[in-house]
Design goal:
Helix 2 crosses helix 3. The protein is 34% helix and 21% strand. The protein has a single domain, classed as Medium-chain alcohol dehydrogenases, catalytic domain (Quinone Oxidoreductase, Chain A, domain 1), CATH 3.90.180. By secondary structure, it is α/β, with parallel strands linked by helices. It is globular, with a radius of gyration of 17 Å. The strands form two sheets. A six-stranded parallel sheet has the order 3-2-1-4-5-6. It has a two-stranded parallel ribbon with strand order 7-8. The protein starts with 8 loop residues before the first helix and ends in a 6-residue tail after the last strand.
Length: 215
């Protein structure tokens, strides 16, 4: 598919995977509908920044969880409410949501079930960005807890497909979604990019640039 005229190459490169994950988790797994209350934990990361915007495109009321330095950025993406997790434990606030999308994995699966209505949906998307082996224990925890608690926590992995790339393209063209880029690194500095991304504090996506792709 050709790059959209309004996007840089870096922005276009950031759309797949993170965009697929946010779209499929909210649309297919959680089946988000207009007016629902959606909580996104890890709203400032690669998947989270897409998820905030896509949930708003579905006309949901979005509460985003992030750190202090990301509050303004996440609010600018359209979040209706923002919780600073350094000041407030969202799992103990007493409020319950129709849908929770957990990207940050900074609270236990059991704690996350406390903030979702019994007939709601808890979707667990991997682990913090860069921590590639971390999903394994969370998958196990979700599987065990699904037998005993409501809502049943569900672990989610996205799949790449052309149809959903077209959906994301349409959101971008309509101005409903804009890829968020934290930093770019030249191909020669890929190890540095991976070290930065693995720290778990990237705002949006970290992109590797390849010489000659700016034309």
């Amino acid at each position: 598919m050709p790059k959209l005229a309004g996007l840089t190459f870096e922005q276009a490169a950031a759309v797949p995977v993170a965009g697929f994950t946010a779209l499929q988790a909210l649309r297919d797994r959680a089946q988000v509908r207009s007016g629902q209350q959606v909580l996104i934990n890890g709203a400032a990361g690669g998947v989270g920044t897409f998820a905030v915007q896509i949930a708003k495109a579905f006309d949901a009321e979005v509460t985003a969880v992030c750190s202090t330095r990301n509050v303004a950025m996440v609010r600018s993406l359209g979040a209706d409410h923002v919780i600073d997790y350094t000041k407030e434990d969202f799992t103990r606030g007493g409020r319950r949501f129709d849908v929770m999308l957990d990207v940050a994995a900074n609270r236990s699966v059991f704690a996350c079930t406390r903030v979702v209505r019994s007939d709601g949906t808890l979707v667990i998307v991997g682990a913090p960005e860069g921590r590639w082996l971390s999903p394994v224990p969370r998958m196990a925890a979700a599987l065990v807890l699904s037998r005993f608690v409501r809502p049943k926590p569900g672990f989610f992995l996205a799949r790449n497909n052309k149809d959903d790339l077209i959906v994301l393209k349409e959101f971008i063209e309509a101005g409903k979604v804009t890829p968020v880029i934290d930093r770019t690194y030249p191909l020669s500095e890929t190890p540095a990019a991976m070290r930065y991304a693995s720290g778990g504090h990237a705002r949006g996506k970290v992109v590797i640039t390849i010489p000659g792709t700016d034309r």
